[in-house]
Design brief:
By secondary structure, the chain is of the alpha/beta class. Helices cover about 15% and strands about 30% of the residues. It contains five helices and twelve strands. The longest helix is centred in the C-terminal third of the chain and has 14 residues.
Length: about 240
């Protein structure tokens, strides 16, 4: 089977309360989390998972304390790529911090679930502050439902709960199946406090449309992964590749 390597590229560092990621846990614990893009190395085409956002948008749109790590262009440039070189953008979901640079990938097919796009264009008020419809204009969408093979060894897995149409990305590597969770989380979502671990084997993401679905998704994704990649975990910043 064809195998790949994942290149995590951090664009922005944002200070947030841990409970934004861990539902009902770690209130008041401040952490700095990166907004990443993820390049899949070894494919026949240039494939990017999510496109991130910069610090100015984080400050202006949501008021988050944020600092730039690298521009979208510079991050790709470190791999010898330009935004127009990207053939496929896989959108795990369409909240603003995952798609702010997608329009720069002018030649890319943008793979997203049908449910996610429909919701993003008319979001329920409970999640409306996490979407920006202006970021979705003039994109070349490929709408999918259910499991979908992007290329041999690269599969999209439905991961609802955080948003209606979130999808995880399973990528075959030389050390097993790596899964980009799709939903916004950190390592602590999969490593609950010891005192409650027997009751809660995982913690749902703090931002969600449906907490039960989000919990079940986290549990299922954890069981499927040989290498688990929480979308905002700080440990991947500066990492050259996975594995």
């Amino acid at each position: 089977m064809k195998t790949y390597r994942i290149r995590p590229l951090a664009l922005t560092s944002v200070e947030q309360d841990m409970s934004v990621f861990t539902y009902r846990f770690h209130y008041g614990r401040m952490i700095r989390v990166p907004y990443y893009i993820w390049y899949i190395e070894g494919a026949d085409r240039h494939i990017l998972v999510d496109t991130g956002a910069d610090a100015q948008m984080a400050r202006d749109f949501r008021g988050f304390p944020a600092q730039d790590i690298a521009s979208f262009e510079d991050a790709l440039g470190g791999l010898g790529l330009r935004p127009e070189d990207i053939d496929i953008v896989i959108q795990t979901h369409l909240q603003w911090d995952h798609c702010a640079n997608t329009s720069k990938c002018k030649n890319a097919r943008v793979i997203v679930t049908e449910a996610e796009l429909l919701f993003a264009l008319s979001p329920h008020p409970i999640l409306a502050p996490t979407y920006r419809k202006d970021l979705l204009k003039n994109l070349n969408f490929k709408l999918v439902r259910g499991n979908y093979e992007v290329a041999p060894g690269i599969e999209l897995i439905p991961a609802p709960g955080h948003t209606p149409g979130t999808q995880a990305v399973a990528i075959q590597t030389e050390k097993g199946k790596a899964i980009l969770t799709g939903f916004c989380c950190v390592r602590e979502n999969f490593e609950p406090p010891e005192a409650v671990r027997e009751i809660l084997p995982v913690i749902a993401p703090g931002i969600h449309l449906n907490a039960i679905d989000a919990f079940e998704t986290a549990l299922r994704i954890k069981s499927l992964a040989d290498i688990l990649i929480p979308m905002h975990d700080p440990s991947f910043a500066g990492m050259k590749g996975i594995p």
